[in-house]
Fold each of these.
Amino acid sequence: MVSFEILREIGVDVEKYDRYRGCGMPSHLKEAWDENNLLELEYFYRVRAGEYSRVEEIYKAKKEGSVVVGSFCLFVPEELVLAADAIPIGLCGGSSSSFPEAEPILPREVCPLIKSYVGYKLGGICPYFELSDLVVGETTCDGKTKSFEVLNDLTDEEIMVLHRPNTRDQRSREIWRDEIHRLKNEIEEISKEKISKQNLFRGWQKLDMKKKRLQEVMELRKQPNPPITGLESLMISQLASNQNPQKYTEKLEKLQNALIERETPYKDKGPRLLITGSPLVYPNQKILRIAEEVGGRVVHEEMCTGSRYYENQPKLNENQTLNKMIEVLADNYLDIPCACFTGDTDRTDQLLQKIKEFDVDGVIHHSLRSCDPYSLEAYQIKNKLKDKGIPTLVIESDYSKEDIGQLKTRLQAFIEMTK
Amino acid sequence: MYGGIDIGSRTVELVLLDEKGDISIKEMVDSSYNPIERARDIVSDNEIKHLVATGYGRYRAQAGFADEVISEIKAYSISATHHYPKARSVLDIGGQDIKAISLSDGDVIDFVLNDKCAAGTGVFLERVADSLDLDIEELSQLALEYEGASVELSSKCAVFAESEVISLLHSGASRESVAQAVHDSVVNIVLGQIRKLEIQGPMVFGGGVAHNRYIQKELESELNYKVLTPEYPELMGAHGAALHAYQKTKSR
C-alpha cells in the first residue's frame, strides 16, 4: 500500500482517495483466484486488487528527474514517451466511484468513462493523474474533446489535445503525422530530452517486446480448450498500459510458459464468444464477467483494453531516419480499428478474420451508454455478421449495478441460442 | 411431477406437469418483498422430480432449491411452440419488461429486451390506471369502447406519464380518451421493440398484459399477422420451464 504522506505531497485528496478509489479485489475475482490458483497469475491478481501500486516507484523516479505522461487512449504512442526516458501511464476512468465529483459539472447523459475520469481529476482522487507532468488527450469523440476543455478550465493540469482526423485518407495521414511530431516536441520540452532515432528505436523495442508477449499469451486462447479465462485475460489486458513495462513483460513470459501446461479452467464447453466495442477500463469487467458466469467462454476482446492494444504493432528498424520512424508510428496508430472513423470502416472484415482464427460462435457488441461511435455502428456490425451466419448480441451498459439482472437474462438467452 | 417456476419482478408462478406432460397444478402469487421465499413456499408443498427456474430470481432459486435455470427467453419460446407449433415469434409484456423473440422451427434466432425502464410494461398501465382511479381491466375496457377523437401521450416513462395524464385531464380530456392514449402509447413502444428484429407471424403474445384485448387487437392490425394468446398467458414462463424439465427428464 502506498503511503498517505506521498499521496498528500503529490496533491491527492487523501480522504477522497481512501473513500472513492475503485480498486480492491471484488468478490467475483476473489472466487476466481481461489479456484484456479496458478502461481504465475498471482502478480496480476495482486495488481488488480490494488496491492502493488506504482505510486511510490513513479514518485521516486520523478525525484530523480523523470517526467510522467498520462493518457486515456491508444492513439497516444507510448513509444515517444519511452524514447524520452519518461513514464507513460494510463489514467483512471473505469469506476463510478468518482461520479459525484463530476456530476455538478457534466450533463447527466455523458459517457461513463468521461464522467469517471473528469471526476477523478476534479476530486484529486487518481494519484497517476496527480503525478502526470503532461496529460495527452485526443479528439476521438465529441465527449472527450469537450471534456479536456472542462479539465483545462477547472484544473491546473497541463493538457495537450491531439487532433485525430475522421478518415484515413492521405490528407488525414499528413495531419496526423504532424500531430505526432507536435507530441514529440512537447515531450522533448517537458522532459528536456532530445528524442533521437536511437532513443525512439529503444523506446519502441521495449514496448514491442511487451506487446508481442501479450499477444502470444492472448493467442493461446485460440486452442479448443483455452488455458486462460476471459476474465483473467481482461484483467491482464486492463493492466497493460499502466504497469512497469519491464516487470509486466517478465511476468507475462512466466505466465506464458505456465499456461502451456495448464488445463483449461473452464468447467463447461460453452459457446466461444468475442467481445467488441467500447473499452472495458479497469476495474470495469461487468459484461465479460456475466457472459462467463452464465456459461460462455470469452476467447477474444476486440477493444482498446484488448487486441487493439497489442495488435498491429509498428515495425521500426535502426536504418530508418527519425522522420521515417515517426511516419511509421503515426500511420500504424491511425490504423487502430476504432469506430470513430468514417470512410473506410472495415471493422466487420477484421472481426470476421478474428471469428475464424478464434473459432468464435457468437459476438457481443458492447457500447458504453452515450458512446455514439460504438452504439451507432452496432446495427451495421450485427447485420453484416448475420449475413455470414454469426449471431451478435448488442448491449449498451454503464458502470452501474442496476442492469445486472437484465444483462444476465440477455447473455444467458444469447448463450442458449448460440449453443 | 415436473416443475417450472418463474420468479418475476411482480409475480411468482409455478406450473407442474404430470407424467403425460399436461398441466396438473398451476399457482400464481405476488412476489412481495421476498420473492425467493414466496417461491420456496409454493414449491415445498409438492413432490417435484426436476424443477427448472426462470425469471429474475432464477439464480437465487438455483442456489436454494431449483435443479436448473433457463432464461425467460427460452422458457417463453418453449411454451409458445408447445401451444402453437407454427409460431414464428413471441412477445411477452410482463410487469417490468418487454421481450420480443424471433423463432425458426421453435429455436430462438434473435431477441430484444427493453432497456432498464418500465416504459410500455404492465407497471406503466397500472400506474396510469391508478391515477384514473380504475383497475387494469376497466382501463382496457374504456380504451376498447372509446371512439371519439384521440389524444396523444408523449411521455414514454412510467413516472412522467402519470403527471402527463394529470395535465391532460386538467386540460379537459376525457378519462376514456386518456385510457386509449395510454394503450396506444404502449402499442407504439412495443412495436418499436418488435421492429428491431426481422420478425414474422404468427406471433404468440404472453405475459400479464396479453389479457388486454385492446393491445392484442391493435398489434394484430399494425403487424398484419395473427397475434395469438394462449389460455394462461401469464404462466408461459413457468410452463416453458416445466416443459423443459419434462423433456429433459424424459429424454434421459
Amino acid sequence: MRTARIAFAIARKDLVSEWRSREMVPALAQFVVLALVIANFGFQIDAKSAPSIAPGVLWLALVFAGIVAFGRAFTSEREQNTLEAVMMTGAPPSAVFAGKAIGAAAVLIVCEAVLLPALTLFFGTPLSPGLVVAVVLATVGMSALGCVFAAMVAQMRARELLLPLLVIPLWIPFIVAGGQAVQVAMGANGTIDEALRLLLVLDILFVVLTSLAARFVLDD
Amino acid sequence: MSAIVAEGISHWFGSEPALDSVDLVVERGDHVAVLGENGAGKTTLLRILATALRPSAGRLEIMGLDALKERARLRTRMAFVAHTPGLYPALTAEENLAFHCSLRGVDRARIPEVLGMAGLANVAQRRVSELSRGMQQRLAIARAVLHEPLLMILDEPDASLDAEGADLLAEVLKNRTAVIATHNQALATRLCPRTLTLRKGRVLGAGSRLRIVQ
Amino acid sequence: MTRKRLEIAAAGALALMLLAGGAIFLYAPTDALQGQVQRIFYLHVSAAIAAFACFAVVLGGGVAYLWKENLTADRLARAAALVGLVLTTVTLVMGMEWAKPVWGVYWTWDARLTSTLVLWIIYAGYLLVRRLATPGRQAARFAAVVGIFGFADVPVVYFSVQWWSTLHPGPVLVNDALPPEMLATFLFTMLCTLVLAAVMVAIRYRIEVLLDTQPMAQVVPSSAVTSQS
C-alpha cells in the first residue's frame, strides 16, 4: 500500500541517517541516565520512597528526551530543505507524518531500552512486561503528538520554547497513566491493566487526530 | 490543452508585494526562461507554478487541472528542482535516488539509468556531502526525472552547474515542457526559445529569442 | 456590528454586571460555613463556564476554517480565544482567592484545577502560535490545529487526573446544595457573564477585522487598476 511504503521509506531514511551520524541516540541515552543520577542526589531515596519517586523521574527524563527527539525530527529537514522535496513528490501528508513519527518513536524506544534497566538498577523497579508495554504504548501516543507540533513549530520562530509549551499539556494524560504503571510495577495497589487500557484509548484517539491534522501542518 | 495557464497571479508576503498580476500561457513542449534581477519575483513565480506555494490571488491551471485543488495529483506528474536541491547529505547518491523511488513508486531499475545519464555512475556510492556542488546539482536534476515528468520547473539550475551539467539539462529537457528561472544568458539562449521577463513582480516583457532590454 | 451598536451593547453588558454584583452582595444570603468569602463562587464559576463557551467557539471556528477556509470563522476563533483566556485567568485567580481562606492552600492538583490550568496553558499557546507563525494562512491553520487538540485534551486531562485521584485521595472539595436564592443569584450572574463575554468577543472580532483589512488596503494596488505589462 502506498501510504505504508512511503511511511516506512521515510522512517528507514531517518534511522539510517541517525545511525550514520550517531549524534542523537547516544546523547539522549546519556541524558536519561544522567537524569536518574541527579534524581538520586536530589531526592532522599530509600526502599520506601523509591516507589513514589521512580515514576516521576522516569517520565521527566522521557518527556525531555522526547522534546529533543521530536524537535530534531523536523529541524534537520528544514535546514536541508528536504521536507519540501518530499512533499513535492505528491506523497500524502499523513503518510509523511506517519514516517516521521515512527522514526522518532523508534529513537525514543532505543533510549527507553537504556532507561528502564537503569531504573531497575538505581531504583529497584522490576522490569515487568506490563511496564514495558505501558512505556511503549505511551511512546506511540507521545510521538504522534510530539511530531505534529514539532512539524508546526519547525516552520515558526521561537521553536525551542514553543514545542514544550504546546506538547506537554497534551502529554499529561500519558504521564499520568505511565506513572501509575510504574507505581503498580513497584507494588502499589491496582492492576496494570487500567493504565494499559487508558494508554491504548489515548493512543487510538491521538493517532487518529494527528493523522487528520498532518495535512494542515505539513503542507501549505 | 496548454501545459500551464496562469491568470492574474499575485502574491504578497505579509504586506510585501512579490508578484503583481502575472499572466502566462505555456504550451506543451515549450521551454520558457523566466528572467529578471534578484528580487524580481522569479523564485516566487516558479514556486507557485510548481504548486509549492499557494498564490494570494489568481487562477492557475496545469495540464488541464485546477492547480490549487489537485496539487497532489499534479505533483506526481511534475518535477520541481528548487534553489536548494533538498538532498540528504548523510546518504549516498544512490540512496537519495532510491528514497525518491520509494516515495514515487518508481522501479529501482531507473536509478542506474539516470545516474548514467547524469555522469554520476562512478560516484553512486559516495555520500552527497562528499560530492562537489556541480555533482549535487546534477544529482538533483537526475532525481527530478526518475518518474519521467511531463513538466519540469527549475529554479536557477545553472547556479552551480558544471559543463556536463549544462549538457545534462539540455538532454533532460527534450520532449518535456519546462519553465526555467535563470540569470544565465547563454543557457537561456541555448535551451529556451521563449522568455518572460519580470521586474518588481510584474511582467516586463515576453518574447521569443533572447533580448534583454537594459 | 456597527460601532454605535457595539458601544450600546457594551454599556448594556456593564449594566448587567453591576446588577449581578448587586445581586451577589445584597440579595444572596451569606453562606453558613464559609461566610462572605463564598460570594466569590458566583463569579468564579460563571467565568469558568463563559471561558468554556469561548473555547467551544474557538473549536468551532477552527474546524470551520480548516474545512472551508472561512475567514470569518478564523477571526471569531481569534477573538474568542483571547476573551476565553482572560476569563480563564479570572477563574484561576478567583479560585485561588477562594481556596486560601476555605481550604488553607492556594492550590491543589485535583482534576478540576489541573484541567483549568492546562486549559490556560493551551490557549496561551494558541495565542503565541498565532503571533509567531507567518501571519495569514499559516497562522490560522496552525492555531486551528492547536485549538482543536487543546479542546480535545481538556476532558482527557480531566478524566485521567480524576482516575489518578481515586487512587491517590487528596483534599475533598466541599459541595453544598444550593438554597434557591443562591441558585437564582448564580444563574443570573452566569447569564450576565455570558452576555459580557459575548460582547467582548464581538468587540474583539471587530478589532480583528480591522487588523486584517487595514494593512492590505495600503498595499494592494487597488485591483481596479489592471493595466500591467
